[in-house]
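> forwarded from #structure-qc
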């Protein structure tokens, strides 16, 4: 069997490079920010029904840009369901009420804060969906031996990103749920980069 050169990247390392934050979040943020810049923001506060319409159109503009679909071709009732989910992720179970109050009364950053929080939530969701798709395209292509080697390599090179109990138990327990850890790898690096 030919000896692999030390400087050659392993399959795992090539995959991790493919899901690096700069390759996932960077392009996603650029598309979302482009949609935000193009979206007409004409007022700093608004009444409830105007807010509902505004958020629907805002989310449609972003999703249209992300999925390359004209916003007018998007299903607005479906968009309303999505923006409710985004607001609940950003503000909790009463997210729509909280964001609507912020938009109407201008407190806690008002409408501009709501826009930023929706933007951030959409970026995170879209990026996470992209990462999960890539993980599930990569992991099943590996043989059992390759999966075990990848888990060991990850433990050696990125163990600091894992909970202590996982690090202590070794590669085999990690391998059993490794795809879940791979799904969180990019986000962990992104958070770590913000701290440093």
């Amino acid at each position: 069997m030919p000896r692999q050169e030390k400087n050659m990247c392993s399959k795992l390392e090539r995959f991790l490079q493919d899901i690096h934050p700069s390759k996932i979040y960077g392009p996603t943020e650029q598309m979302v920010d482009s949609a935000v810049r193009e979206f007409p923001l004409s007022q700093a506060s608004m009444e409830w029904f105007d807010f509902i319409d505004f958020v629907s159109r805002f989310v449609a503009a972003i999703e249209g840009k992300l999925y390359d679909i004209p916003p007018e071709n998007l299903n607005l009732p479906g968009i309303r369901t999505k923006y409710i989910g985004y607001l609940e992720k950003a503000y909790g179970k009463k997210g729509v009420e909280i964001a609507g109050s912020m938009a109407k009364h201008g407190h806690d950053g008002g409408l501009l804060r709501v826009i930023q929080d929706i933007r951030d939530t959409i970026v995170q969701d879209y990026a996470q969906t992209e990462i999960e798709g890539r993980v599930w395209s990569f992991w099943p292509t590996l043989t059992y031996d390759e999966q075990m080697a990848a888990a060991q390599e990850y433990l050696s090179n990125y163990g600091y990103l894992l909970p202590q109990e996982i690090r202590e138990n070794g590669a085999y327990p990690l391998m059993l749920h490794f795809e879940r850890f791979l799904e969180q790898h990019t986000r962990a690096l992104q958070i770590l980069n913000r701290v440093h």
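QC bot note: Residues 11-195 form one domain. The chain has a mean pLDDT of 88.
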